[in-house]
Specification:
ATP binding, 11 strands, ABC_Gallidermin_ATP-bd, transport, 6-stranded mixed beta sheet, Lantibiotic protection ABC transporter ATP-binding protein, AAA+_ATPase, alpha/beta
Amino acid sequence: MSNYILETKNLQKQFKNQLAVSNASLSIEKNSVYGLLGPNGAGKSTTLKMITGMLRPTSGEIIFDNHSWNRKDLLNIGALIEAPPLYENLTARENLKVRTTLFGLPDSRIDEVLEIVDLTNTGKKRSGQFSMGMKQRLGIAIALVNHPKLLILDEPTNGLDPMGIEDLRKLIRSFPEQGITVILSSHYLSEVKQIADHIGIIANGVLGYQDKISKDQDLEKLFRQVVNENRKVG
């Protein structure tokens, strides 16, 4: 049995004449935080959308929890990609009620995830009136509601102030202890260095580096090197 919750093998996505992701082979260890780094437009979101079934791969294979990925696996995957999927006229609790009804889960799950993301005291405030940080946390609560084994967060710190980033960092680091593996995509190197156990660097659609992260590693130098090498390829 593999220690990986997710692997991709030569994953590729082509849009007409543009190769957005080229032969990406990711290896994500169970109960860890994996940082997927890359400049804007590098192929991070496209890769994550293939893993979550939002896009169909042109070629390659996705292996989830030791078997070939199928749509039933989405019951074990939570995702926050791009903007949080909120009904802005509803409260935090009402937003979550929509999801627990969909999954056939008890209302007690609403209280559990609100506590995890520290949104228990929002009362009747509509989510459209939330701060950016609160919206991000509610988006994570929605992604957590179905007890996922894998949580995918695409640029979750975008638009957050320093306090919001710090809160989110602590929250993400708590997930592996709860049996939840996290894939975190970002172009903020310092943030990923503080959160991740492993990193992958993607540039021009190519996964140019993947390994365990070292705290004394010059991540900025490595990032520039991988990006420049794959600019030459493109």
